[in-house]
Amino acid sequence: MAKATLICGTLCCGKTTYAERLREERGGVILSCDELMLSVFGQDAGERHDEWARGAQSYLFGLSEKIVAAGVGVILDWGFWTKASRESAREFFISRGIECELHYLDIGEKERRRRIDRRNGEVLAGVACAYYVDEGLEAKFLSRFEPPEMGEADVVITG
Q1: For the whole model, what pTM was predicted?
Q2: At 59, which CATH number?
Q3: Residue 80: helix, strand or coil by DSSP?
């Protein structure tokens, strides 16, 4: 039976790479809020980013339901940074009879910093379709992150 897999983790913890690995191993479709937002707005969503991201996520939830109904699993690659967002996502899928798992990627500060620097270099070189993470963006998103509580995640990947 097709299921929904939610990928949770901070900036540059490897969510997209992990989602690709899951897709290769299990099959399925990756739905990425960042990919959708960047393709429509580029780096310049500005003050409306959060508003538009909510709209993108709403659209992707609806799309994910259709994909699973067609018998194909979905991998949602957009962080699920708050407990409320994780609970809401689980409720969305469970209320529709769709199996749902939460995978949490937990990496150390030093590795996260290294990955941010690498990704920023790739963005500047035009070889990565990702957000450039300056200190302001990093601080904003890290202040919002609520790590899953013990037992909340179905799979925990540390690194």
Answers
A1: 0.86
A2: 3.40.50.300
A3: coil
